[in-house]
Q: What sequence folds into this?
């Protein structure tokens, strides 16, 4: 669909939102970013899957890339608190091993692949450079990231730990990383904001997810334009 038509469709559908919902959309879109994105490799526990979505939404991270090799990603709606309506989920599940497919797609979009692991020591949260777009890769609760995910990453991120346990669980790791890095990003001079086209696309997605029978309304509107 042409961007011009998307803009017209958005204006039409937003007329069916309440003033409060429209104002909330317009406020939150200004704090959304694709400069940082999250990649989840084979996450399967519903509670953790849902908690990560909430952390993405609350820190303004728009895109979540989901690699499904052995496990299907099934967030728990009660834990996610509707976050799946506000973040964009991109799934990779067409191949036997989808990790490298996801990495390739992300690199084509200009992302640096950042694997999170306690066993590598490239960067901490404080030293992690933010100049380039980054894809933060998180693994399963039990085993962490696969060897393929780790060995093919561009760099590594470690959360400092001072206790006996080997690692934080994934939902806590995601919350710590995203809060720290998104806050640091917003305080920087880096251009982290969405483009106008990206804003339109996301606002359209949010609006469709809010209005009942939005697909029928969209069809009717597009017929009127012909």
A:
């Amino acid at each position: 669909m042409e961007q011009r038509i998307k803009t017209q469709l958005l204006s039409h559908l937003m007329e069916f939102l309440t003033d409060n919902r429209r104002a909330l959309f317009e406020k939150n879109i200004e704090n959304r970013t694709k400069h940082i994105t999250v990649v989840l490799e084979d996450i399967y526990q519903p509670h953790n899957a849902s908690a990560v979505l909430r952390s993405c939404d609350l820190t303004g991270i728009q895109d979540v890339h989901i690699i499904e090799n052995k496990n299907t990603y099934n967030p728990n709606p009660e834990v996610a608190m509707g976050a799946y309506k506000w973040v964009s989920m991109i799934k990779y599940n067409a191949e036997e091993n989808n990790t490298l497919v996801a990495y390739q797609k992300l690199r084509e979009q200009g992302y640096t692949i950042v694997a999170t692991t306690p066993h590598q020591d490239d960067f901490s949260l404080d030293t992690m450079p933010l100049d380039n777009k980054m894809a933060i890769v998180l693994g399963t609760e039990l085993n962490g990231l696969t060897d393929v995910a780790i060995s093919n990453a561009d760099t590594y991120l470690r959360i400092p730990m001072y206790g006996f346990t080997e690692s934080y669980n994934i939902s806590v790791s995601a919350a710590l990383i995203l809060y720290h890095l998104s806050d640091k990003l917003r305080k920087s001079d880096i251009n982290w904001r969405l483009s106008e086209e990206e804003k339109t696309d996301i606002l359209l997605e949010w609006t469709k997810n809010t209005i009942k029978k939005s697909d029928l309304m969209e069809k009717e509107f597009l017929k009127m334009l012909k």
About this structure: The chain has two domains: 33-190, 194-226. The chain has a mean pLDDT of 91. Residues 170-186 form the longest helix (17 residues). The two ends are 13 Å apart (CA to CA).
